[in-house]
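User: Could you check the structure of this?
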Amino acid sequence: MTKTQIFKFGGASVKDASAVKNLAEILRNRLRKNMVIVVSAMGKTTNALEKLLELRMKEEDISSNSTILKNYHLEICKDLFPADHTIFSKLDNYFLQLEKLLVNPITKDNYDEYYDRVVAFGELISSRIVMEYLCEIGLVSVWQDAREFISTNSDFRFAKINWEKTRLNCQKNLKSILDQFPVVTQGFIGADPQGRTTTLGREGSDFTAAILATSLDAGSVTIWKDVPGVLNADPKLFEDTQLFDELDYQQAAQMTFYGASVIHPKTIKPLANSGIPLFVKSFLKPEAAGTKIFQLGKQNPIPTIVLKQNQILVTFRVTDFTFIEEEQIHTIYEQLNALKLRVNFLQTSAISVSIIIDQQLFKLEQLVNSLKNKFIIRYNEGLELLTVLHPDRKDFSDLNPGYEILLEQSTRNTVQFVRRKE
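Assistant: Sure, the predicted structure tokens are below.
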């Protein structure tokens, strides 16, 4: 029996009508039953939906932004479908639902839950457009709501997967459909036990592909990107990048941990545990080999540069003359865990703990308020974290021209710089 294949297409691969047509061309000779197509929101739609939430919280008018977002999707559909196609009424219905949802007051207390309900529309709309277009050109497929089989807890914005229930849902409900048709579904979203929409963390569509692959005992996952595969640095930020033809699961996981944006950090673990290979390929050159990530058993020695932007440096100093001990570090991490904040960099001294975290709405304020009675807290926003994996030299001044280095840390295999523009 042929094993299921998972294809994941990100926002750039569906950003306009020509991109959707290109996606269809990629699938023309590849699409078959027992295939799941996971689709992200179109272009920068998630950012636009986040902006609607921000305006709604400030009790400002959202009609202009909402109209721009609707017209963006409408123009794509006009280029893909005849004027009498049902996609237009479906699009109207989605935006009607969105507008009704945004009538409700949004506060700090309910923001995370509303965030998930609102941003999910990006994936729901894009996957519906993709499925309808595939059917329009004769590539028959079935649309499925990911919330019906991706089961999570109720940690809105950072939901954890109920693996047992998700597998049961996929084996019981999804497999029978895949025996007859390919399925188009959404990345990034799931549902909690009460049926409420949850999301898996920003850029979580890759993770969705891995979840479905594991739950369906798939043969492979292919992520289609606007780059040739996994590179040793972001080509938009650094010159002379090198392509990895093959990567070991462990090295790929290490790269994503430090912030390599080509693959979502949670993607590798379930695939590695199940021995499912991951291919990263270019939707601009679909015939090219790309990168294969599997149990290679050896690491690639090419130095890798990873840059994380929008970082915050937070330093906690003890309020008396005691030294930093495990108890203080535990107190800080306990609060970070409660706020679902991940530490990207940690440095301790005799009297202080310094951490780097991602910029997230409200989270810094909540962190400071929760610990200000126990520590003297200072922070710097708008920073960058530059990580070099497998460095082949000791001087990295050419990587940091025009930057002030606030913190530096090195081990045998890793060098990191916390920096800001001078």
